[in-house]
Automatic annotation (TrEMBL):
Chain segments annotated as transmembrane: none
UniProt superkingdom: Bacteria
Signal sequence bounds: none
N-acetyltransferase domain span: 3-158
Organism: Nocardioides baculatus
Lineage: Bacteria, Bacillati, Actinomycetota, Actinomycetes, Propionibacteriales
Protein name: GNAT family N-acetyltransferase
């Protein structure tokens, strides 16, 4: 599937919100309580405004993947929020694609556009086997750190380049 990747704009907030709600339901239906997903959808208008603010403030780097005029995925990165010594400074805060695009290359393309070969870290929901396998194929590994969130236990994964690993020995 050929897709176009472009930075999110304030005009994309509604489509991005709808995508974000859809992909959460696709990815987490069997992992989080249904009422949590329903509450997220009920807060759609507030989420649209939040995405507008994020896009206009430039506080994170959000990229959108389009197939024709249909939004099929997004990624968000930012300076890491964790202050652990030695942790890469780049955090992949989100990477989601529609289930209909699984296996088409949209996810790896978004990841490459978002972080390239950079050292980075992310948080993944425990039990999200599809995402964990994807990130492991991209060189991420669990570092043993976990944190409880309202959606469940999140586990941290870190990717370090061969060059970084060699200089830290």
């Amino acid at each position: 599937m050929s897709s176009r990747i472009a930075p999110a704009r304030t005009d994309d907030a509604e489509a991005l919100t709808d995508l974000h709600l859809d992909v959460w339901e696709e990815a987490y239906a069997d992992l989080v309580p249904a009422d949590l997903l329903a509450a997220r959808r009920a807060g759609r208008d507030a989420r649209i405004e939040r995405w507008r603010n994020i896009a206009s403030a430039g506080s994170s780097s959000t990229l959108l993947a389009w197939s024709g005029d249909r939004l099929v995925g997004f990624s968000s990165t930012s300076t890491g929020r964790d202050d652990d010594v030695g942790l890469p400074p780049l955090e992949l805060m989100a990477l989601y694609v529609r289930a209909t695009t699984y296996g088409t290359g949209v996810g790896p393309a978004l990841l490459d556009a978002a972080i390239g070969a950079s050292d980075a870290y992310l948080w993944v929901l425990d039990g999200n086997a599809r995402a964990i396998a994807f990130y492991e194929r991209q060189g991420f590994r669990f570092d043993g750190v976990t944190k409880p969130e309202d959606v469940g236990l999140e586990r941290r994964m870190v990717r370090r380049s061969a060059e970084t690993r060699a200089t830290s020995v």
